[in-house]
Automatic annotation (TrEMBL):
Family per record: Belongs to the COQ10 family.
Start-end of Basic and acidic residues biased regions: 235-254
Ranges where the record places region Disordered: 233-254
Protein name, entry field: Coenzyme Q-binding protein COQ10 START domain-containing protein
Entry-linked Pfam families: Polyketide_cyc
Annotated Coenzyme Q-binding protein COQ10 START domain residues: 46-223
Gene3D superfamilies found in the cross-reference section: 3.30.530.20
Molecular function per GO: ubiquinone binding
Lineage: superkingdom: Eukaryota
A GO BP annotation: cellular respiration
GO cellular component term, pick one: mitochondrion
Length: 254
């Protein structure tokens, strides 16, 4: 070992234990990314698709009937579509469950007549751009936000509607089976898909006991909402009463 000679003339020999130690590198525990969970539920309802879609696109009313949604306020609207109608493009949506509450500034995407999506956190829409020409997809407001210390890091809710090709069975013994007694009936298939991801495994574990029921509870609440808004009348009866098909009282967009 090399001997160091200090300036005061005293010989000091540095042993291995006296050599300065390299600084310790602090290590941090990195938690694995939690998986995205998916829930789905569907219903077939006895109303035409345009009327069902109008209720789904009425985002400000969500907090009035959807479980777990405590606030739903539209904060921005799209450009007019090809029919001159504006659709919600951004909303403040607050969800609450078991004492937890989370607010998202969510993007809203309406593909007229077929899909309504609420997209928050790190989620991204799955609707093709070709169906969203009335939205500014490349603007800074495209990015949604939530509290960086929040419960959820990803939340996407998609409502899809499509006409259901249903025909009632012919009357037994009728000589006109297959003709007058098989007039198609207006029915619509409604599907709800929910994608979500928790920021913490504790929250994820706590949701495990009830998460599978969330989509079913929400679509049941929606089914009740449809009945409350549209009533028990058939589409033809509503035309006769209102003078036009699909008259549903809605809040006006700007």
């Amino acid at each position: 070992m090399k001997v160091l000679r200090p300036s005061n003339g005293i010989h000091n020999r540095l042993t291995r234990h006296q050599l300065p130690l390299p600084p310790r590198r602090r290590t941090f525990l990195t938690l694995p990314q939690l998986p995205t969970q998916n829930l789905t539920a569907s219903r077939t309802l006895k109303y035409p698709a345009p009327e069902i879609y109008a209720i789904i696109a009425d985002v400000p009313s969500y907090s009035a009937f959807l479980p777990y949604c405590t606030e739903s306020q539209v904060t921005a609207w799209s450009r007019p579509d090809s029919n001159g109608k504006k659709w919600p493009s951004e909303a403040k949506i607050t969800v609450g469950f078991k004492g937890f509450q989370e607010s998202f500034t969510s993007k809203i995407y309406c593909a007229p007549g077929s899909i309504v999506e609420a997209v928050g956190g790190g989620a991204k829409t799955g609707i093709p751009d070709s169906e969203l020409g009335h939205y500014d997809l490349n603007t800074p407001s495209e990015k949604t936000s939530n509290d960086e210390n929040g419960i959820l890091t990803h939340l996407l809710t998609r409502w899809s509607v499509r006409p259901f090709p249903f025909k009632p069975p012919p009357r037994e013994g009728s000589a006109l089976q297959g003709t007058k007694h098989t007039v198609p009936e207006d029915r619509t298939e409604v599907t709800l898909n929910i994608e979500f991801q928790f920021s913490n495994p504790v929250y994820s574990a706590m949701s495990g006991a009830v998460a599978d029921r969330v989509a079913g509870v929400m679509i049941e609440a929606f089914e009740k909402r449809v009945g409350d808004v549209l009533g028990g009348d058939s589409a033809s009866e509503r035309v006769e009463k209102n003078g036009m098909e699909g008259v549903v009282h809605r809040g006006e967009s700007p």
